Amino acid sequence: MSQVELFDDKQVVDRDYDNPMVVLYGKGPNEKCKTCDNLIQIQPGQNKYYKCELRGITHGPGTDHRVNYRACAMYKKER
Ligand code: SF4
């Protein structure tokens, strides 16, 4: 009886590409988005959301941005 492999352990998932901006522009410095000047916080009600200004901002969750994403090449050091 053959064994079915559910996961190929040779496949390495590069979490840096979870950030759609890294997919678009490539990796930036070894930083997180939370230290980038392009990351903004919005608070329309009781909840806070983070958005990358360069990614485009909608009123929906599709453009919510994780502060711990790997920085992209458009990274701008916080002043
Ligand atoms: S521009 Fe800044 S906040 Fe936006 S994805 Fe790149 S590093 Fe992150």
Automatic annotation (TrEMBL):
Origin superkingdom = Bacteria
* Protein name in UniProt: Uncharacterized protein
